[in-house]
Every structure is written in C-alpha cells, then in structure tokens.
Amino acid sequence: MKKNAKILVGAVGIVAVLAIAYRMVNQAPSADLPANEQMEQILTDGGCLACHSANPKLPFYANWPVAKGLIGKHVKDGYATFDVAPFMASLRNGSQPNEVDLAKVEQTIADGSMPLSQYYLVHWGSSITSTKREQMLAGVKEMRAKFFPNPLAAPQFANETVRPVPDSIPYDARKAALGDVLYHDTRLSADGTISCATCHGLNTGGVDNKRYSEGIKGQLGGVNAPTVYNACFNFVQFWDGRAGTLAEQAGGPPLNPVEMGCKSFDEIVARLSEDKAFVDSFTVAYPEGLSQATITDAIAEFEKTLVTPNSAFDRYLKGDEQAMTAEQIAGYDLFKQYDCATCHAGVNMGGLTYELMGQRANYFEDRELTQKSGLTDGDNGRWAQTKDEHDRYRFKTPTLRNVALTYPYYHDGSVQTLNEAITMMAKYQVGREMSAADAQKVESFLNALTGEYKGKLLVNDNMK
After folding, report:
1. Taking the model in full, what pTM does it have?
2. Would you list the domain boundaries of the chain?
3. Which residue stretches of 372-453 are H helix?
C-alpha cells in the first residue's frame, strides 16, 4: 500500500510540475500591449511560420525518419492553404492586412483548428488558451473595424466577414457615358464582330453563360469569362491577376488574337476616328484625344457603374430581418460553418486573394477521370504570370455576387449547376462532404445574392 501511495504521490507531483511548466511557457501577451502586438506574439508563439510560409522555421527533429514525412506534409499543406507572412508583416507595421487573411486567422482561432495538436503537444507554448483566443478575436474585430469599416450593416452584422454592396462608387459620368458606348462597340475588334458586351452581356449576368467565350473567327478562349458586374471591387482582374486595374483589363481583349484580334490600338483609333460625332464628344471629356490610355480609361469609368446593390442579402445585413427566407438564413449560417466566408469575404464576396484550386483533394485528377479533360494552359492560374511553382493552379477567387446567374462555374467552366459547384467546393476546398440538404440551403442563400442594376433586380435573359 505504501509503495502504491508513493507512486500515486509521485504521479500527482509530476502532473503538477507539468501543469506549472505548461502555464509558464504558455502565457498570454500582456493586456497592456496594442492589439496588433498581442496578435503577433500569439501567432509567433503558435508557430504559424513553421508551416505557413515560403521559408518555414522547421524544428530540429524535422528530418528524423518518422517525423520527416508528417512534418513535410504539414508544411506543404500549410503553405498551400495560407501564407501567413504578409499578415504577420501587417501586424508588425500596424498596416492594413488582406481582408481574407484576417478572416482566415479569425476562423482558425474561433474553431480551434490551429495549431495542430501534433504541434502544440510538442511545443507547449503554441496552444491557444482561452485568454489568447479572446485576445485574438478582439484584435481581429478591432482591425476589421479600423481597416474595413462596415457602416452600411446593422450593428449585429458589423463584424461579419462580408459587407453590403454600396449603392455606387465614385466615377466620372461624362467619361462613363463614352465608356458605355465603347463597351458595346464592335469596332474594338479586328473584324467588327466582337465587343466587350459579347462575352460580358449586361443582360446575362455580366457573362455569356458559355464554358469558353467565342472570339473572332470562332476561336475559343481558354478560361471561363468572369462577370463584369462588381469587378471594381476585385483586387486584380482576370483569373490569373495579369491586370491590376479595370483599365489594364480593358486593354487586354482587343489585342488578344483569340478574342478581338487587333494588332494594336492604332488600328482601333483609326476606325473610331472616322466617326466625327463620336470624336467630337470624346475630346470634350478627353482633350488629349483617342488613344489606348483614354479608350481603356473610359471603359473603366463605365465599369465602375456596374455595381449591383440591394440584394436580399444586402438588405438582411442592413437590418431587414424579413429580406431573406428562413432557408436562406440557414444557408448563410452553413456558408460560414463550412468556412466559405473566409475566402469569399469583403464587399464582393471574393476577388481579394489567389487560392489554390483543390486545397483538400486533387480537383484536376478527378476532372481527368470524370470528364477526360487534360490540363490546359488556362489551368496554370497565377503561375502563368509569376512562374512561381507555389502559384500553379492558384486563381483569383471569383465573386459570389449574382452567382445564380453566372453559370457555368469555375475557371474552366466545367460545372453547369450551382448546386454541384457548392458540393464540389466543400470537397475540394474545405475537405468536407456536404449533405444534399445543406447544399440546398446554401444554394438558396446564394440566390439571395442577386442584386439590382439601375434600380431593377438583375436578370439573365438566357434563363427566361
């Protein structure tokens, strides 16, 4: 009995020592520190840079036989999912973070998914205690209020990752009117058959509802045409981000041999110059005259008018509890539970980051099996611009605004229905199987994202 008692006392002592040691190495930052410094310390102690960066800080045992494979996979998956380095830099500098990065940090802290248990069991100071969690969530809320204010939302929705679409953004009305004409003008194409509106119809959800758009001479493009509506809220343009502004984007298709096929803007200027009435009105707004810069600027000003506010969801966020149905409200809750609201954040519910297509399962392998569709140049995504292997298969996240009208889906236009796109996203991006009932509710919610254009609910004539 005495021996057993001694063993028990010894065990209790060891546990007590371990508990004390755990508390000593797992202290929360001082409450006197600014929120950004608290967050930086917590994420540093949490070992985020050990996996979520291009230059991971690996532990000394990373190359041990048993540990090597497991750690290597964690590092690869971690960096593919989220490069935390830019966010850490914003915390150090007190500067504006990426809105999606902020949402990702909030989501993983709130659900306790990070750091992985395999990590904090070895690195005791990395686990997120209740105090650390409270500090992190309070810090996220403070940063969101500072950098991404949400004055249009009702108080209870002010800290949501998504924000209502404003009624308008600033633009030059005279230049936008000219841009409207140019947007619909087939003289921007070499053979006079294609305009911007051909592939981005304003009466068809800002797209053409084709897998690949058709350019001059019946040539097909390599990726699905994204919607032009609300494009002004994207951080870059095109799936691969090759244009930084709306004007840069407008300058691409006219010179693309597959799309509009012009050799240079000089020939476009020459054709437009034959129209004296148009030239006269154009030089009133642009005294410098017709050029690539002024033509694309006018189109960009017009595209700033293509915002679609006042969707049922926007009205709900503004405080109208009756704007969405019970099923749509349940769908929004599921949208957040499945982590969709992290990458699809902000005003445009997307268009703020590049994300890997197939984070949790291999999308392209499965597409090959089901559709016999091999890889194309369009599948390379951001890699086409950077040649950085990390960017291969990484695409600008599409907006979900008006998504019920903008089929087919994904960069390759391979998915025809919204319901299928939803369940596939859960599998490939989140790593979860979504039930048919849940998918139906999320689809119902996404239907509530259709907004108004010129005061009328946006419709798609192809769906009539």
Report:
1. 0.92
2. 24-149, 173-303, 312-463
3. 383-386, 418-425, 436-447
In this predicted structure, what is the pLDDT of residue 121?
61
Question: If we measure between CA atoms, which residue out of 385, 410, 382, 384 comes closest to residue 395?
Answer: 382
Cα 51 to Cα 451: distance, rounded to the nearest angstrom: 40
CATH architecture for residues 173-303: Orthogonal Bundle (1.10)
Q: What is the token pair recorded at 370?
A: 């089901």
CA distance 415 to 422: 10
Asked whether the domain spanning 312-463 has the same topology as the one spanning 173-303, the reply is: yes
Q: Which amino acid is at 314?
A: D
Taking phi over 0 as left and psi of -120 to 50 as alpha, with beta for the rest, 262 belongs to beta
At 317 the pLDDT is 98
Classify burial at 452, counting beta carbons within 10 Å of its beta carbon; exposed 0-12, middle 13-18, buried 19 or more: middle
Spans of the chain below 70 pLDDT: 1-26, 59-60, 66-67, 116-125
How does DSSP assign 72-122, residue by residue? Answer: HHHHHHHHHH---HHHHHHHHHTPPPPHHHHHHHHHHHHHT--S-HHHHTT
User: Does the N-terminal peptide bond of residue 65 adopt cis geometry, omega within 30 degrees of 0?
Assistant: no
Is the peptide bond prior to 408 cis by the omega test (within 30 degrees of 0)? yes
Which is the CATH superfamily of the domain at 312-463? Cytochrome c-like domain (1.10.760.10)
Cβ(348)–Cβ(234) below 8 Å? yes
Catalytic residue positions, numbered? 259
